[in-house]
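re: ur question from earlier - yeah i can do the single chain one, its not a big deal. heres the input i used so u can compare w yours
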Amino acid sequence: MMANLSHLGGRNFLVIGRAGMDLYPDPPGTRTEDAARFVSHLGGSSANIAVALARLGCRASLVTCVANDAVGRFCLNQLDQYGVERTHVRTVGGEARTSLAVVETRIEDHQSVIYRNGAADFAMTAADVEALDFGAYSALITTGTVLAAEPSRSAAFRAFELARAAGLPLIFDIDYRPYTWPSASVAADAYSRAGALCDVIVGNDVEFGFMAGDLAHGLSKARELVAGGAEIAVYKMGEKGAITITADGEFTTGIYRTKALKPTGAGDSFLGAFVAALATGLPVRAAVLRGSAAAAMVVARVGCAPAMPTRAELDTFLANHSDPAGA
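and the output i got, formated as tokens:
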């Protein structure tokens, strides 16, 4: 039985998944191999989503693990600065390491190098999620990255089970990154299980195609998920916009044109703004447009977490840009 999305109105979100450190060659436009200096920012898909929600007036609590070292403490300090609740972020010792990404602020020949060996966030266990009071939250948000390894994968599915028992909507950002998985078949199985459980599924055409087992059948997979009980599936197509499928039908929206500095952060900002808009009671189409606007803003700014817009900034952007529906 799927959950009622009216729960989102409590605007208090539990986000499961990684936080990490992002290093950007500075100044913007610099290639990594030519860099003499770097600037550091909070990163990691789930942490970025939590920041996006907090910036938009929601409460967000992150559940993950970070290393018991300077980089892990950097992430904890950053979460505090952004107002993300991190009571349920556990530090782990040994050889575990917090994710580190070296990401360029450039579009042409963009390079990113991601260090995920022995990633601390994969150390999250069922005990970590069983300690949570799911009834205190409005929804559970996860990204596919959390499913890529054990014990994190089993912990996430345990969280789905406990959240469902508490009546929480489950929101899933597919976020497929092949390099974190042991094999494509393991990933496909985990994504199929997760997709079937969730109320809102967001991903791009390639990710839905991967879930379908055929890149040509991604849209059919998104429709199938809604037919099977999901409330909303958002099928993103890059510059071609998005097709949003609900039980009441589907619609297409375009993208907001912007002068992009980098390709990263768009998906995280989209999800945060989309969910925040649904939580305020906006219709699904208006929520998709707010997500699209947030994505356009973030790719035009340095960093991911620090680039997430406030509600006032998002409102101003929308007031100054025409509706891209049908673009």
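The chain has one domain: 11-18+44-95+121-319. not sure if urs matches, ping me
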